[in-house]
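Appendix B: complex inputs.
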Amino acid sequence: MRFLLIEDNPNLAQTVLSQLSAEGHGVDHAFNLAEAEACLAAARYDLILLDITLPDGDGRGFLKRRRAQIDTPIIVMTARSEVSDRVGTLDLGADDYITKPFDFEELKARCRAVLRRQGRSPSPVQQFADVSFNPLEATLTIAGDTRALRNRELRLLEVLLAAPGMIFSKDQLCDRLFSFDEAVSDNAIEVYVARLRRKLDGSRARIETVRGIGYKLVA
Amino acid sequence: MFSGQPRSLRRSLAIQLVVLAAVLAIGLYLAVLYSAQRASQATMDAILGAATLSMASNLRATDQGVRIDLSPSTLSMLSATGQERLFYRFAIDGQVLSGYQDLPVLALPSPAVTPVFYDGSYRGAELRLATVSRALMLDGTLTPVQVIVGHTRDGQRRIAAQLAQNAAIFGLLLFLLSIPLSLVSAGNLLRPIRTIAQAVGRRGAHDLRPVRQPAPTELLPLVGALNAFIARLKAAFHHTETFLAEAAHHIRTPLATLRSEGELLLRTTEDDSQRQHIRRMIRSADECARSAGQLLEHATILYRAEQLEQTEIDLRTLTARMVERFRTIAEMREMSFTLSLPDTACPIQADQVLLEAALRNLLDNAIKYAPSETDIHVTLTQPGTGYRLCVRDHGPGIGGVPTAQLVRRFQRGLAAEHIVGAGLGLTIVQEVAETLGGSFSITDATGGGACATLELPQG
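Resulting structure:
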């Protein structure tokens, strides 16, 4: 997936950039609207992440202009007050918005939802052993048998699949699956691992328990 | 400062005018009474004087003494005085020649030529008397003969009383007429005040233009002060609006960086104790952002509540849209929404910002407090003329705590220990409900969980 991030705060932009890259996406970064226009003239993007308050203008003006020209989904990132800014943003043509500060998992989830709704480009499919994984559709296909994944199963598989063979501790997995204000019991992660294992039944891919340390995906 | 009813300018002005009219009416009555009496007295005196003189001129000196001829013309003159009784006396040196002996006399000698008038009482009647003397040659000496003519004053009194009565009736009519006239004129005089008050009262709460209605000179300072006040209010509102948006921006942007950095760090850190620190840091950033968000939202609600900006909104569409906004976050917790909406549009007159804030906090609360893998039921119904929006979760419920306690500022429910927030979410919902003329309650649902109900009138 190719993303265009339009964000003037360099620190925030850098972290979002790092996280998206770590997920295997290609990301271009524009500091302002002028740079964004240049990027859009040069390349095609699957999704645009747009900050509203920018040094050379209001992101809403850009939103309105671009909406008339391109159908690339746009997710607005707003830091304005909860109330006064959301109104109208969607009416101007944003596909979704996210309020800063945000959970990166939420940003990813919103990106997925927007891309799925749009359904324009053929969904990218990840292949591991004999498993085809479609993150947008949230499906696994094993030997022609397609299985739907629930949200946390999908995210768990995404984490494991990013580094097959690497051991992830229960803690690390918890941090990716649960929000920080959820009360999570010690064995909560085991529940989702067990469920994902059932979805992987009949394939060569399996999740191994490394006693006392964590889990890894192997084939 | 004020005790009881405020003073009415119109009323006191009208009362003053009526009192003035009463004084004038009484004055008029007295003036008419006085001049009528004077006029009738003067007329009667002229007749009496003429009669007296005529009688005096009819006196003749003869050898037998004084001869008195009461000529018909004299009598007819006196008959003009109407029903009065007549008395006369002729005397020389107090020696009565003819007539009533004991008619009241003047202490002074009667003058010649011009009669003198005086009042006296005789046989129980008030008399008006005139006296004049005429010198006759008797026995070779010029002897003055005193002539006194008097008549009762009943007729004169009757005329005066009649005139006075007429004057009184006229005065009373004048007074009665002055009451409505006073009211009308007081009303007219005070109309500019009413016009300005109505013009200000009619305008919408967000209409902060200066008052431009024409005002009389006396009201100019008041209108000027009002306009200055409106200008200050406008500036304050503008300042508040900008401040709220700016504050949010300046708090949230660095927090966003802090949080993202934390997340990034968390992914690359293996050490468990360090991970624990980073997690706490992220949680604090979340807590700060959420509290700031709620505080600013709360401030925005209070500010918007003053503005009363109303548009027609379809509550059905709005509810569906808000639920759609929360679907992603709910899915991340493997929660799902079941949405039950009426078949037709649900128009409501309200401030969209307020409605959205209420819905957002209700949905946000439900997601925050319910355990994952449960359903949240959002039901919009139309009982009677208003709307009822229920958000029912399968969380721990509220443990019988009354709504009034839950919606108190910074008050958090029993289940809230590990959940971030300032405790203003339900306060915001409650305030929106109040502002829009509705009500909010939260109860334990049968079968577990909490049921938050927002009742709203159509507006």
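Chain A has a mean pLDDT of 86.
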